[in-house]
TrEMBL record:
Keywords attached to this entry: Membrane, Transmembrane, Transmembrane helix
Domain of life: Archaea
Record-given protein name: DUF4405 domain-containing protein
Organism annotation: Methanosarcina barkeri str. Wiesmoor
Membrane-spanning residues: 6-27
Length: 53
């Protein structure tokens, strides 16, 4: 009995959590799987490594 109530409560909180964060989920998914834009000249940052003595 308690197991069933806790399961229903967890489902409620899961649905509420997804509903509250839906815009973030959509934004992140679009950025992750969206078309990659081309890099413009000067956008690429090159790292210069100097040896440490």
């Amino acid at each position: 009995m308690i197991h069933d109530k806790i399961g229903i409560l967890m489902l409620f909180f899961f649905v509420a959590h997804i509903a509250l964060h839906w815009r973030w989920i959509v934004f992140t998914t679009k950025n992750l799987f969206g078309r990659q834009r081309e890099m413009k000249e000067g956008e690429i940052i090159e790292a210069n490594y100097m040896p440490v003595d």
